[in-house]
Amino acid sequence: MLSGFEKALLAILLITLMMGMGTTLDRSSVRIIAKSPKGIVIGVASQFGWMPLVAFGLAKALSLPNELALGLVLIGCTPGGTTSNLFAYFSKANVALSIGMTAVSTAVAVVAMPAVLWLYGSAFTDAQVALPIKDIVITLVLVLIPVWIGMGIRAKSASVAKWVERVGAWSGLGVLVLLVGTAVLNQRATFAEIPFNAYVAAVALGGVGMVLGYATATAVKLQESDRRAVALETGIQNSALAIGIVVATFPEAQHELLLRMPLLYALCVLLSASGVTAFFRWRPVPAQDTLASTR
After folding, report:
1. If you count Cβ atoms within 10 Å of the first and of the last residue's Cβ in the chain, which end, N or C, has fewer?
2. How far apart are CA 93 and CA 89, in angstroms?
3. pLDDT tens column, 1-22
4. Angstrom distance (rounded) from CA 278 to CA 87
5. Vertex 92, ends 89 and 96: CA angle to 5°?
6. Are 230 and 88 in contact (CB under 8 A)?
């Protein structure tokens, strides 16, 4: 389904996103995690607890075909990405907490993602479609290499790291938009064949994730800026990683069907997250929350 050009874009996207993430990590990241353990715990529980379960429930409730269901579950099992950090910034959320949640969930993903994917995804496999768990683990480990490079840049020069971080965030988002846009334009007939219930699932996964994240953060009495960070981090999964895993680990003959849901989700979550961000910007953050999130 993806052309050679689109696969090259995907590789650039993953490298820039993960390297940009790495440049945000230093000793202060550990302090952030220690300072906001509730948010971090909620983030990990979201990414590998209820988000895979929500994806599985939507796939079953909407009776998605196996390939679409497996693609949806794959999205539900991925950690957060730097796109959520960017939306957190524009939403006046606690960006430091968002970055900390992304970092921890990405590290945990090497073990947790294959486990929950096997748990929920096995229900949608058959003789034609199998889960290449070993290859997925290898891919996740390799994806961490740009993160380590980013951390090395941070250790050498904070000013260069800041530049790489910004370039990574913005170029990553730009390439993601371009990747999804070119896929939609070049595969219009393919997207027209996707059933309506798949569109419902793609919209619902991100939307339900954001609502659950905000509600859980509210229940444990996090401040408003933290609630927004948790909501966005929960609902915005790393769709680029999901697409990369399909391309790198599944047989090429299965790409067209398996990539439909990750690409569709990527498009839908960018739109829904933009709407949520507009709402958050319209709704002011209490002054004490703003001060606390910048300390």
Report:
1. C
2. 6
3. 666 776 777 777 777 777 777 7
4. 10
5. 55
6. no
Q: Which tokens belong to 238?
A: 């790393």
Q: What letters, b where the CB count within 10 A reaches 16 and e where it falls short, cover 129-168?
A: bebebeebbebbeebbebbebbbebbeeeeeebeebbeeb
Q: What are 67's two structure tokens? A: 């390939």
SS3 assignment for the chain: CCCHHHHHHHHHHHHHHHHHHHCCCCHHHHHHHHHCHHHHHHHHHHHHHHHHHHHHHHHHHCCCCHHHHHHHHHHHHCCECHHHHHHHHHCCCCHHHHHHHHHHHHHHHHHHHHHHHHHHHHHHCCCCCCCCHHHHHHHHHHHHHHHHHHHHHHHHCHHHHHHHHHHHHHHHHHHHHHHHHHHHHHCHHHHHHCCHHHHHHHHHHHHHHHHHHHHHHHHCCCCHHHHHHHHHHHHCECHHHHHHHHHHHCCHHHHHHHCHHHHHHHHHHHHHHHHHHHHHHHCCCCHHHHHHHCC
Which residue is associated with the tokens 């794959």?
74
Please answer whether residues 263 and 77 qualify as being in contact, where contact means their C-beta atoms are separated by less than 8 angstroms. no
What residue has token string 């699932």?
201
Strand partners of residue 237: 80
pTM of the model: 0.84
pLDDT by residue (tens digit) across 237-284?
988 888 889 988 998 888 888 888 998 898 889 889 999 999 999 887
